[in-house]
Amino acid sequence: MTAPRRRIVQGLTWISIALFVVLVLVVIWQVFTRQVLQSPSAWTTTVSQYLFIWLVLFSVAMVFGERGHVAVDFFARLLPRPAQRGTSVLVEISILAFALLGLVWGGIRGMAISWDQAIPGLPVSVGQMYLALPIAGVIIALFAVEDLVRSARGEDMLAGDDAQSEAALEAASVGAEGTGPAEAGAPAEAGTPTSPASPTSPTEQKGA
Fold first, then answer.
1. Which of 9, 40, 75, 144 has the fewest CB atoms within 10 Å, counting from its CB?
2. Please, what sign has the CA dihedral across residues 133, 123, 51, 55?
C-alpha cells in the first residue's frame, strides 16, 4: 500500500469512527426522548438515517482502499497467471465503471434533482445529503485506477492479498517486539553442574 493511499484510508477510518459515534449518540437520544421523556424527538429518525448512509459509503470506500472486501477468488487462483491478470483487470474495470457511473454520475444527478428539497426539521436539503455519493465514488475510483495499473503490470492483485499481507506484517512486527531474549530462553551456561537429589537417610525415613 502506497503512502498516499495509506493516509486516505486512515482519514476514511477516522471519518467512519466519528460518524458511528455520532450515530450512536443520536439513537441513544432518540430512545431516551421516546421512552423516558415520553416526547419523541422529531429530527433523530431522519438524522440517523442519513448518518447511516454516510457511514456505509465512507466505510465501503475505506474497505476498498484496504482491499479487504469479501470476494470469492477460489476459481481465479486456479487459473494460469495470464488469466489471473486478465481477471484482475476486468474486476478493476467493473469497479471503476460502478464508481463513476453509479456513485459519481448517479449521485450528481440525484443531487441536481433534490438539491432544493428541504428536510423537515433540518437546515439542510436532500441534495446536500447526497454529497456522500459522488465523494465516495471519486475515492473508490481513485483506488480502482491504482489497482488497475497494478493489475495491468502483472502484480498479484487478487482480492484480499493486500489486506492479508498487511495483517501478516503487523502480526510479525508485534510478535518480534513481544519476543525478547528472556522469553526466547537462554541456554544453560556450560560448566554449571546440576546437583542431584540427595538420598534420604535412614534417620529421616524413621522420622517421617
1. 75
2. positive
